[in-house]
Amino acid sequence: MINDASDEKLVEMALRNQPDAFGEIVRRWERKIFALCFGMLGRDEEAQDATQDTFIAAYRNLGGFRGEAKVSSWLHRIAVNQCLTKKRRAKTRGETALENEDGSHSFFAPLHLSPARQTEQKERLKVVRTAVNALPPDLRQVIVMKEFEELTFQEIAEALRLPLSTVKSRLYTALKQLKMRLEKLPLEVI
Amino acid sequence: MTNNNHQTELSCDFAETLVAVLYNEATEAEKQQFEIHLGICAFCREELVSLGVVRGAVADWRKADFDWLENPSIILPTTEITPAAPQRGEKIGWVERLRKLLQPTEGYWQGATAFAAFAICVGLLAILGYAFINRSASSQAENNQVAKVQKTETPLLPVNSPTPTPKPVVISPVDPQQTEINPAPIGNKKIKSDQGSSKQPVTSLKLGAQRLPTRPNKNPNQPILVPPKSVDMAVEEIDDLEDNSLRLSDLLDDLTPSM
User: Fewer CB within 10 Å, N- or C-terminus of chain A?
Assistant: First the structure.
């Protein structure tokens, strides 16, 4: 019964203190929320912490969910806020997530490529991470939702409470800025 | 680089359609219209290709750094879910507020116990205060009554008027024809009032405190006359004294052990 229930129904069941209901919500959305946090923060450990904090915050504020929006949109808003808070704290501490990442954890090193080509590939990914991290938060969250979570424009608009046209224009601007930043960087990525 | 449908490089009317086509979310009508536009706009053709490459670069980053990651283990708190506080501007009826107020929560019973103890203390204080106020009011009423009686007996004097100095009580010889008493020894029960046996006048008589009139004497030269007690009253008091002494002696007799 829990597997077939909608997200909103699961919230109602969780409010009636059915223990498995919120667990099912977590199971459904943890991958996408984790992807969003990873795209926003750029580090595995910080993304895991942000995902954990997102679901804890949602659980504690479950009584405040009024059903005006989808549960997924509600979770995305919480996750975006958690990521922005962590980014601000990291900035206060003088840390930058993506710049310090050297890409050594990347598994994206196809064996058929030569060592020189693999090194080039790592450098290319590092440039992309740096360029995404340099985007303003409102542009970054849109492109991360699209590329990492693979949400539709309508889902992004609901999650961020934005008009559909605004989402499209922001995504266009984000891609344009990324292109410009990648062109300025020494590595030829395009 | 302008034409009918493409104003400038930085503000193309087809930017949103371009993104929708890039992510394959454009409608059929949008696709047809954009294809027509691409035939006449070289900028949008280049833009579509270059942004597609950028999109591919971001997707490569995701595949390289994220897709192989496992989901984090989410540990939820064990506390129960409580309804959230109402948002700003939201109106809640008094019935709902009362229901929420009486709903048992984490510290409900502690709060209820503390409130009950506080209410009991307040009740006790109220009872004590009420009793104290009643006692004060009754004593005040008594004082007012006494003051009223005294006021009727003693006229108020003006503040500026000199306080009348108490005059010495002068007991003048009483007319022998008014009162005569037989100087029989006290202790003898027989006290006779014999008018003919003794004609000596009584100069003083101390048979108890006699209240002097509090009214100031208007004529200081006129001596104050203390009306003597009647002979019958004096005899009764003497009888009472003798009766008391007899009773004490009886008690002493009773206390002494009989041999």
Answer: N
